Amino acid sequence: MAALDSHLIDRFISNTAAIKGYSENTSRAYRSDLTELVTHLQHLGRVESSEIELDDLRDWLYRITEAGAARSSVARKSAAVRAFTAWLERNQLHPADLGLRLRSPKTGNSLPKVISRETLAEVFETLERGAATGNPERIFDQLVIELLYATGMRVSELVGLNLGDIDYSRRLLRVTGKGNKQRMVPYGEPAAAALENWIRQGRPAFITETSDDALLLAARGKRVNVRVIYGLVAGVLADTPMGAAGPHTLRHTAATHLLDGGADLRAVQELLGHASLGTTQIYTHVSVERLRQGYQGAHPRA
Fold this sequence. Notes:
The protein has about 300 residues and is mostly helical. The chain has 13 helices and three strands; from the N terminus they run αααααααβββαααααα. It has helices at about 5-20, 25-45, 55-65, 70-90, 115-130, 135-150, 155-160, 190-200, 225-235, 245-260, 265-270, 275-280, 280-300, and strands at about 165, 170-175, 180-185. Strands 1-2-3 form a three-stranded antiparallel sheet, with no helix packed on it. Helix 6 crosses helix 10.
């Protein structure tokens, strides 16, 4: 038995994150989700962990869904609850694992949004003009977009890069992904040029006495924050037909363009760091959909 409070959540996060290899982002999301859950349980009069009932959990998820939460958010919260209830049962803090009887909502079949090659060409042209001024901030902007599109990496992986992760001769980056799993990803000539410009002209302008070997530095010489990258990408894409979108859109776009160009599905899986090939296969559906749209627009008897 244990009190339903923030200390219990802290115990769960610290114990489970070490075993499961949760990323910092996953731990933060689970902490937020479980804090919401515990507040809900407290409103129901639950004081101890052993007092939680299955209907309490179902009611919480129902309220979140009715409030308009995205299916993906509800699915993540369901996953957090199941991990939490399994941990409670394992540590004899609840007589049963209630999460085994808790259904996760299906996340739907919407396809990822993809930026057209034409739009990207315009974006990179604008970024190149900005970087050509020698302004360190514009050089930073160009490098971020180039690397996200060139490698398809996650934004958390991008901000985690260090100078020692760069293999200049082979144009490879050592990326640390989910579960601290590392992989090598290639990048092309435009990204290499943007990287060289950043190392030579951009990054030195941000270095301070407390700077470490982080590749991307913020204004005060510290490793750049994920939120900065989200804001940058949204700003860069705001005036395009795509509209303001996050870094994951560039990841989707990179994967889809690779498959459009004939890349092997397993090679794309390795590049993206997907544990399952099934996760990567969504991009084959995107490519087929683009083919269908092109066919309908071009074939006389479509």
